[in-house]
Automatic annotation (TrEMBL):
It comes from Pseudomonas protegens (strain DSM 19095 / LMG 27888 / CFBP 6595 / CHA0). This is Urease accessory protein UreH-like transmembrane domain-containing protein. The keyword Iron does not apply. It comes from the Bacteria. Keywords: Membrane, Transmembrane, Transmembrane helix. Residues 31-234 form the Urease accessory protein UreH-like transmembrane domain. The keyword Transmembrane applies. The chain crosses the membrane at residues 27-56, 77-95, 101-123, 155-176, 188-208, 220-237.
Amino acid sequence: MRPRAYRAAKPTPAENRNRPMLELAPLLVSALILGLLGGGHCLGMCGGLMGALTLAIPPEQRSRRLRLLLAYNLGRILSYALAGLLLGLAGWAVANSPLALFMRVLAGLLLIAMGLYLAGWWSGLTRIEGLGKGLWRHIQPLASRLLPVSSLPRALLLGALWGWLPCGLVYSTLLWSASQGSALDSALLMLAFGLGTWPVLLATGLAAERITALLRRRSVRMAGGVLVILFGIWTLPGPHQHWLMGH
């Protein structure tokens, strides 16, 4: 009897469904870490605003401070996810064109620049934040009308408006997420990034001095900057990606 030819087992429908999620999982973890390590930048960019929002809570609402701070940050994170979805649609539209490679290269370069900024080695990236000042000029008066914050829906809406504050770290991550070529993946990555920034800004609002002091330390900022730079290098297309994926 002739031996039967060996045939590789075909992946099951369940495995086919799980494969995109398995590919997305490392990117979600990376986005979460990027938000957490960018905490030093968040303290400088949004720490003062977080303190101002906390002071804007009326005295009779101080017992609900934690819930109001959670609502602020939830609104901000949902804005990040919405921005990721909108820009992700543009990324999806150009996913199979030469522009996709350009977006990937630009995203990698921006992440490297953000790592240099976080480590305190170069601050040129702050100029990118000027791109969003025109939009923020129209949003800021709307946000001012919501003060003082007297309810959870009001805090949620104020946080959603706050999410559009010009920020080089957000812009860099947004472009990187959009370069994945999927609107849904882009929204999920920005959601994960926003969740990563949550502990830092929540600690700032609650006056958690130990956490904020730790994230202000130069060694922590440098370590975070180096990791973001390495992630930016990994994002750049090239033969090094095949080597990294193989290891």
